[in-house]
Amino acid sequence: MFQIPRGTRDFTPEEMQKRRYVEEKMRATFQKFGYREIQTPTFETLDLFTAKSGDIIIDELYFFKDKGGRDLALRPELTAPVIRFYVDKLQMESKPLKLFYFGNCFRYDRPQKGRYREFMQAGCELLGTDTPEAYAELIALAYTILKNVGLKDLKLNIGNLNILSYIFKTFNISKDQQKKLTPLIDKCLFDDVLSCLKDFGVSIKDAKQFIEVLQASDTNEILKLIEKDEQAKVEMMKLMQILELLKNIFDIKTCEIKMSIVRGLDYYKGVVFEIDAPNLGAEKQLCGGGGYELISLFGGRETPTSGFAIGFDRTVLALDVEKYKFPILKLDVFVIPVNEAMIIKALEITQNLRKQGLSVDMDLLKRGMSKSLKYASSINVDKIIIVGQKEIDNDSVTVRDMKTGKQELVKINVLYNKIN
Ligand code: HAM
Q: Which residue of 77, 125, 266, 276 sits with most ligand 1 atoms within 8 Å of its CB, as the best mutation to test the pocket?
């Protein structure tokens, strides 16, 4: 017996039906906001991912040498690949350039519910603008996608890494110390942040104030702390403008400013945001994104860039937790020939109904009527057509409605209209 690799999954037909349904809803919303779909390869050169983060990221990657000795990696995310594509081929496109994608990603993570080694992202990148309206639109798009797929319980937090960095400075927290603190802040482990700050020699009073500001959604508290820094104040005004737009134009009520949004990846700067599904527990983060800089590092002409990615698998999990009623996978018609002599006629009827647009299957195992009926009800069929000699002699077949159990004789030339 072969085992499925750790952290990967197989999907049943029912699960695939759900996934395709969610994917189509997401795609339609991206398109409504003026985004166009692109695709990039599943593997890239390894240095695309180490360029910004350094070799430390290699531990989290699936990487290999190909037969030509090239160092390659399965993509852990799609932002770096999209920017590589942009620098290579899309720089001359008119701006703003709005690109979206679906793609499977690979991370050498510790697997658990909602955290896999192969998972799918639905994401987008916005190139050429970083106005408050552009950010508000981007964040509203992420939120609207999740609402449109049917999720009810969502929490949106927006932050700003420039303001956060000013706050770090105010409390005399060095760059090295920040590196230790940010993963703890990212996971909201504020007790650990407190003991870390104590170790760094920060007074208890300051440490407590630092944590309070990180968790505060009252903007006055943040404003008080940054009032001496003009740049931080400008950034804060921009963030508040974005919040206003999200609340008033896009009608997103569950939205707060939180300086504890630090984002894990190394390329972010300025505005950042996350959307959680609180029902999901530990792996509740459905979406993350913000502004970032990669273009000049990849050899292109710098232009403002921002984007986000939604964890597709977690979105489906969150819908299940909310008991979302997905459309059921079903077939319009199942055709049963009563004996071998009827097989050709049954095939002909099956194929004609398919041509007219119905989803139709036919018994291919030559089993008896009762077994065929049992099979048909197991695969969720609306109608059954029984093809027998006596009926065919009258150019008719028997149609059984699986919901009511009613049967009637129907002429073959009006079959489609009767069934549809
Ligand atoms: P990220 O926060 O690393 O951002 O991933 C985005 C989303 O992917 C997460 O919020 C989560 O829902 C999902 N995700 C991440 N890791 C896993 C995993 N191991 N298993 C299941 N789901 C997972 C990015 O990847 C950025 N590229 C987003 C972005 C686009 N920023 C700017 N543009």
A: 77
